[in-house]
Amino acid sequence: MNAEQLLAAATAQHRAGDRDAARRLYAEVLAVAPAHPIALFRSGLLELELGQGQTALERIEQAVRAAPDNYRHHFGLGQALQSLGRHREAAVAYQRGLELEPQSADGYFALGAALQSAGDRDAARGAYEAALRWRPDFGEALSNLGILALDQGCHDEAVEFQGRASALHPEIARYGLNLGIALCARRDFAAALGVLESWITREPGNAEARFNAAIALHGLGRLSDAVLAYREAAQLRTRYAEAYNNLGNVYKELGEFAAAVAAYEAAIDARPGWVLALNNAGCLMRTLGKLDRAEALLNQAIAIEPGLAALHDNLGSVLKDAGELDAAITSFRQALALDPAAAGTHSNLVYALSFQCADPAPILAEARLWSERHAASLNDAASLNDAALPNDAASLSAGAAPAVAERRATTLRDPEKRLRIGYVSPDFRDHCQSLFTIPLLSHHDRGAHEIFCYSSVERPDSITQRLATEASVWRDVRRADDASLAQIIRADGIDILVDLTMHMGNGRPLLFARKPAPIQVAWLAYPGTTGLAAIDYRISDPRLDPEGGAEPYVERTWRLPDSFWCYDPLTREPAEGPLPALARGYLTFGCLNNPCKLTDATLRLWGAVLGALPESRLRLMAREGRQRDALRSRLAAVGVAGPRVEFAPYRPRAEYLRTYQEIDVGLDTLPYNGHTTSLDSLWMGVPVVSRVGATCVGRGGLSQLVQVGLPQLAAETDAAFTAAAVGLARDLPGLAALRAGLRGHLERSPLMDAPRFARHLEAAFRAMWRVHCA
Questions:
Q1: Among residues 306, 485, 486, 728, which is most buried (max CB within 10 A)?
Q2: For the whole model, what pTM was predicted?
Q3: Where are the domains of the chain?
């Protein structure tokens, strides 16, 4: 046979699927006619099908040289280059082919795919749109446009393109699946579930459809159903790492931590070195208090992907929990260097500086930087501000949107109106914050105030239920993003919105940056500044912030007459118990604060006290492992070593309170004093010796001790701190009498007078509102 006959036979075998025979025949053609362009081209395509990209490229390049005006050769060259990952060169080849055949929808589609793989999304979009001009029903082009839109965060466009592809080609499951994915990304979970369930009915063995249906179920809050769907997906696809990882996330949200650990381990086993699963497992270990394991997992992930900011952020949180504050701050700064736009990481840094800085200036500077970097772009969102609204309902535009009109009608400037107060928190649950929110909410004057609570609690509990009964309106907003929640608050017509979290974990400063209420107030999380101009006031008291002193805050300080805190232990058990030193023959100092407060300055301060009393001991709370070992070493460096140092584990609240029965005198921390822990200590009859600092968080001890009638235990100097602690230790009868009466003193003080505190805070809110109205 001659070359043409051999080529015809090779082509026939190729089309029939007999690749071995076709390959042999193409070789015979090229042996007879080495420069035959068609044989070179078709042989190259066959090599491409066989996964021999380099051989395919060499053949098709020869075909292009032999017949440079054949557009198909250039398109084939693009395919070969793409198979080798050379996407930019592939795009050049496709463009040359399109110059020769400018009406090829397939050519434009291939060009778009190459550009998309090269990361040039805008050019890829233009190529796909060109393909659609020549073939409006080109489903692949529509679907890829949807994928591009999804990558760029344009969720409505993604849904539009995937919807068109699916409607034009309802027989192609992938288009329906992509539509479901796009609807999930748009958070239209109900619609997504409908689309995906229809495909599951058609293709019950489609693991990806079940996986994405599980995502939709999770988004709808149907957690048990999501668990079943993820498990079904994992049964349909062997070693389905994504399904196991997401299953772990749902179990964590349900509080089924053992099952979550197993799911994450299955994900890591299915895909060793998968950074996302390592990160999630590390965060769960932190939740479980297994800090050494959490640190190891996160460091493993960082070794694999050191440029991922979230890993450094999460490691910083673990190190902070472990008391390694300087290392934690270094990790937060590293995360911000990698992703300056990460507002949550920046909040972690701002809050961590409160524990490190004895001077308020660096804290204020970082908080201002937070606002400049993350909140400035939201200024326009705050433009619906009552400063621009009329004072009478009649002058409102009849054409206003219903939600806006409702808000305007309910935030008119009547200075004596019934105020709508909104409290925002992720911690309306079994959390130390509830020791302060319950006494306030249960004593609000409902005739003068309507109380709204916006709760983003992940796992509601009995305390959540109790708090919900204290609110006029309770909203579970855990699945609402900041923009959506801002709209809800505006529609509710809130007059004064209170931030109970600030820059602490799971706080929502970007919500407050949107200014959804005309007056916004920071209270309770910690005395300090948010850095946000959108927050008008911060609550304080005359000891935390003395009149005439420095004001290192963005917000205006509003001092309550007595105290920043109003405390309720929510239990009378356990009792204080007798003074331990009377039975033991030696005095035990103690501090059950978070180890991140145990700075070197604090340990030096304590070292002087225990050095003056060589028989005394020190009891701290720290987790087993490297955290305790590090604390032992640091204490040994200040002269407190060996059996003199005792540790208590982290325990549920009742057992934690019982730990105070083993402590004679509490020692406070600096520069961040104990706040809730000091009140717990006083409740349990254990006086706390505090060192007054220069920041408001360092004056918490002074504020509380003044209220309970023990101002002499708030020391202005290191020497006075030592003298106060040693003085208590050397008068055991006096210390025992103080212990016996301290709970009563606390109960009779303003620190536990909830009606009085509520009236003071309500008076502050009313005065703020009157200023606003004026």
A1: 486
A2: 0.84
A3: 381-559, 580-752
